[in-house]
TrEMBL record:
This is Phosphoesterase. Its EC number is 3.1.4.-. Gene3D superfamilies: 3.60.21.10. Its cofactor is a divalent metal cation. It is an enzyme of class 3 (hydrolase). PANTHER family: VACUOLAR SORTING PROTEIN VPS29. It comes from Cellulomonas wangleii. Residues 1-151 form the Calcineurin-like phosphoesterase domain. Belongs to the metallophosphoesterase superfamily. YfcE family. Pfam families: Metallophos_2.
Length: 182
C-alpha cells in the first residue's frame, strides 16, 4: 500500500495551489493521509476527487464547514497497520509519552501543526510521522511531504521529499509590485 502524507497545506493562504510534484504523489498513492490545516474546503474536495482513498482530519485553521466533514482524529486499519491521523500533538518535549497514552490503539500516527518533519518511535513502539508542510516551510530549509509503504503490518520505505524552492516571479513590465516568492 503506497501512502502519501501531507499536512498544513494552507491553500490558498500560503500558496495558490500545491505543486505539481505533490499532486502527482497524491495521484500515485493508494492512500493519502492529510493531517489538517487545509484552510479551504475546496482543497478537501480536490483531494477527495484525486485520491484513491483519503484518511484525513481537521486542523486549528480549518473553517467550520470543513470541520464538519472530517474528524479531529481519523483511524483506519490498512495493510495490517493501525493508522491514525491528528493535527496537533503538543510540544516536541514529551510527545512520545503523550502519544503513547492518548493513542494506545495505534501502530502509526501521522500528525501536523508544527510544519516540522518528524520521525520517531515511542517507548511502546508507536511510530510518529509528521510530513512537514508542502507550502509553508517556516524554520525548515524546504517545504516537504512524506511517502511510505504499509505492508504486512509494517511501515517501510519512509521518504521525506523536499520540494524545490520557488523563485520569485518576474515583475510584469510596468509593474512595481514584487511577487510573493512562495
Amino acid at each position: 500500500m503506497r501512502v502519501c502524507a501531507v499536512a498544513d497545506t494552507h491553500v490558498p493562504v500560503r500558496a495558490r495551489d500545491l505543486s505539481v510534484e505533490v499532486w502527482q504523489a497524491v495521484a500515485a498513492a493508494d492512500l493519502v493521509v492529510h493531517a489538517g490545516d487545509w484552510v479551504s474546503i475546496d482543497l478537501l474536495d480536490r483531494f477527495e476527487d484525486r485520491a484513491a482513498r483519503l484518511l484525513a482530519c481537521h486542523g486549528n485553521n480549518d473553517p467550520p464547514a470543513l470541520v464538519a466533514r472530517v474528524p479531529e482524529v481519523a483511524r483506519a486499519e490498512v495493510a495490517g497497520v493501525r493508522l491514525g491521523v491528528v493535527h496537533e500533538t503538543g510540544a516536541a518535549a514529551g510527545r512520545e509519552r503523550r502519544c503513547d497514552d492518548r493513542f494506545d490503539d495505534l501502530d502509526l500516527l501521522v500528525f501536523g501543526h508544527s510544519h516540522v518533519p518528524w520521525d520517531s518511535v515511542t517507548p511502546r513502539g508507536l511510530r510518529l510521522l509528521n510530513p512537514g508542510s508542502p507550502t509553508d516551510r517556516r524554520r525548515m530549509p524546504r517545504c516537504t511531504y512524506l511517502t511510505f509503504t504499509l505492508r504486512a503490518g509494517r511501515v517501510a520505505d519512509v521518504v521525506l521529499h523536499e520540494l524545490p524552492l520557488r523563485l520569485p516571479a518576474r515583475p510584469r513590465p510596468g509593474s512595481t509590485k514584487a511577487s510573493d516568492p512562495r
